[in-house]
Design a protein that fits this description.
The protein is of the alpha+beta class. The chain has helices at 45-61, 89-92, 97-112, 150-170, 177-184, 188-195, 197-209, and strands at 7-17, 20-27, 30-36, 71-74, 78-82, 87-88, 126-128, 134-136. 31% of the residues are buried.
């Protein structure tokens, strides 16, 4: 499949910013998500390529896990991944306990493969599929080293804590005592980040890339 040309005659532009373009298109009649690195700004091209390469590594490691896109193609210029039909969390607002139970299991499968998502605070990275099950997308800043040392465990715990924050928003009555304790004890690097770098990050994300908190949607670049 990866050797055939992408059908760009039918597509929907999902996002276009300094890091390139993301499109919903078709190949051989099958919907796919296409990330175009060539379209990135010249000054952001190297970063865009590294981010796409990281996503490709993560998806390759997670191959076969239901709820994670399939890597179809990566050649340094474009990344193709399988399309997962579903609504982003901020739209679907899942309030079913089963969603969070399945989301915890999905997260555990990622961590067993040595992958930490690292961007689960963004609600658009969580999908709610038609049958109510969760799915995860956007692995651009995932931990892909595979080693499960102390740092891995800290980051994996933050993955969990971000999921629990969403559970607290949409299904707080289902939180267990242990989950509430995890929510109340963020990792030291998370506390430091909120106290120092988060404001600068938001400023750069909004002014340069056009991102706004939970929207996860870059501006459509001219």
């Amino acid at each position: 499949m990866a050797d055939d040309p992408v059908d760009t005659s039918r597509y929907m532009l999902l996002k276009a910013d300094e890091l390139g373009r993301i499109e919903l298109t078709e190949r051989d009649g099958v919907r796919v998500i296409r990330r175009d690195i060539v379209a990135a700004r010249w000054w952001a091209h190297a970063f865009a390529r590294r981010a796409a390469a990281r996503e490709a590594r993560a998806l390759l490691r997670l191959d076969g896990i239901d709820g994670v896109p399939v890597l179809l193609h990566w050649d340094g210029r474009e990344l193709l991944r399988g399309y997962i039909a579903g609504a982003p969390m901020q739209q679907a607002q899942p309030r079913d306990r089963a969603y969070y139970r399945d989301a915890l299991r999905l997260l555990a499968r990622l961590h067993r493969r040595g992958i930490v998502h690292n961007d689960l605070a963004k609600e658009p990275n969580w999908l709610v599929r038609a049958d109510g099950r969760p799915a995860l997308v956007d692995f651009q800043i995932a931990w892909t080293r595979g080693r499960r040392g102390a740092l891995f465990r800290v980051l994996a715990r933050e993955d969990l804590r971000h999921l629990l924050k969403h559970k607290r928003t949409y299904c707080p009555e289902a939180l267990t005592l242990r989950q509430r304790i995890i929510l109340d004890t963020p990792a030291p690097h998370s506390r430091l980040w909120r106290a120092t770098g988060k404001r600068m990050y938001k400023l750069i994300a909004r002014r340069v890339f056009g991102y706004w908190d939970n929207e996860g949607q870059g501006r459509i670049r001219d």
